[in-house]
Here is the input.
Amino acid sequence: MKKNNYSELGKAFLLIISYMVLIPEIIVLVFQSFNLDLRDPSMNLLANVLVYVLMFLVLLFVYRKTIFKEFIDFFKNFKKYGKVSVSYWIKGLVFMLLTNSIVIIITGGIAANEAGNRASIMTFPIFSILSMTILGPFLEEMLFRKGFKHAFKKETTFLIVTSLLFGGAHLLASFAGMSFNEMLQNWTQILFIIPYGGFGYFFGKAYLETDNIFTSVLSHMCHNTLSVLIVLLGV
Here is the structure.
């Protein structure tokens, strides 16, 4: 009987922690050592760029034995995998639109993560377009999907855990910088884990169906590209 692979599970969580905590903290220390003020928008942007680049390189190194093979396989079977990508993107989009509408009614506004993304697009359009439509989808699918592919013996467990982690990660911005009392007052932001996590579920399904991470990356890119266009066009 296939068992959970705790070594893979530990590696996957370590990579997520590296992306969300360790690498950003290291960059903060480096900037401080050079007396660079991260409150300066330009310096903050540079720091974010470095986080993306460093994590990108780390992931390429960690998954070097399979990532390039999957990349080649994806383009060899682009027509087949592309259909799967678009199919699950549409399913995820419908689910997110429905659940997001309900949650917005309950909370009285959009998710803090979404508000932050919109502000970033208007302030730093070029960086935001590149990070949200290309780098972000690749990094997140590698971290929240590929990293857990061989960690669980059951696909259902894989889908549930990765969806919750993916949704939870997108909620961190909602509570960043808040005191405990402020978090309690804004507890309804937690409800946004439903649309975010639900979309993550469909990304996971795309990955499992093709066993190629670039299938879910393409689905993710489709959604983020649409989101960026909506903001830029003021729709």
Summary: The two ends are 52 Å apart (CA to CA). The chain has a mean pLDDT of 92. The first helix runs from residue 6 to 33. Residues 6-233 form one domain.
